[in-house]
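hiii, so i know i said id send this last week but things got crazy w the move. better late than never?? heres the sequnce for the chain we talked about at the cafe, plus the structure i predicted for it. fair warning i was half asleep when i ran it
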Amino acid sequence: MRGKFGVARPTVKPCLAPALTPGIVGWYVDAMKVHLRQIPQGQTLHLEGEENPGPLGLEEAGATPVSPLRYSLDVGLSDGGLFATGRLEVRVRLRCVATLEDFEKDIVVDPFAMQMELSGGELMDLTPAAREDIHLVLPPHPRRDDGGGSTTRPAAYEGASRASQQGSAGGSSAWDALDKLKPTSH
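okay and structure toks below
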């Protein structure tokens, strides 16, 4: 089986190594780590699966993960470094800046690409690179209508809109008020 870069890859599907940490209610996965010895010399290792999105720190960016982090990565070694390319995806709940209502959106990093120097250990943590790329894709001002859907305005906006329409229908508008302030030259 040939990999993305034309190099043979193993047919087994290993997964990222969970780094287990004691939690309040048992054990949970807190990082995406790769065992360097699993990567065949001169080849790439294909990794696919799902991980806990907790270590991504999405809450601090105003996003709440509603699905696991899904990944499909090709990982390899080159010139004293580790590289990974592929795709990352997580579904999050965001708050629309226009309607102030929550909505869900798929956050996709495709293509995902990273390279890091080998640290001398057996495990390499991909979490910081995945976290950074996902945070860069998060919308800074999330809007429900970004995906082509329609956005309904809250009642407060509708009241203000009606008032401005009534003002212009009655002949008196903000422009008329500004025109009255204009100095006249005689």
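btw The longest helix spans residues 155-169. thought thatd interest u
miss u guys!!
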